[in-house]
Amino acid sequence: MPLLYANMAGLAAGSAWLGAMAQWQLVGLGVAVIFISPYIIPILLMPAGIFSHFMLLYQKAGRRKFERLMFVLSIFYIALFMTLWCVGIFEYATGDIGPEIPLAPLLWAASAAMLPLLMWSSRDRSNILIMAMVEVAQAATLILCTIRFFGVIPHFWLSSAVFGGFLALLTIMQAVNEEKSMNTR
Prior knowledge:
By secondary structure, this protein is mainly alpha-helical. 84% of the residues lie in helices and 0% in strands.
């Protein structure tokens, strides 16, 4: 929850700052993302739910190899979605600004990208993996902010690779942890 409140404050501060700079299109986008995301995020994540459904079917049938495959596909899809969501919003907000990026668009971009995901993940606090993925996405977003703040403008796909790499690392660590916990049962 502290990340949720920090991002709310960041979005408010970034919006006020951008408003003072007459960047109303970015402020409007942030408001639209906040109001539309509760409807769009579940629709965009439906394929992950389909993989999870098949994972449960394979689990009941005792087919561990296919169960693991469906788990990996589900998590991979969620990581891909989070990567494209966060990097896409971040790049849109900071794309038209030169190498000397003011802090306002960076603050706004990080908060606008993460706040909808934090709101989505806070609905089901029992899903530790998703909560952890969102926290890693927050760290990756802050790394993108730091890189952009120092004037480095990575290409969209490079940013996506860095961001996705952090989420992939988390996924691998979680899969290894889950495998260990299943073997101890």
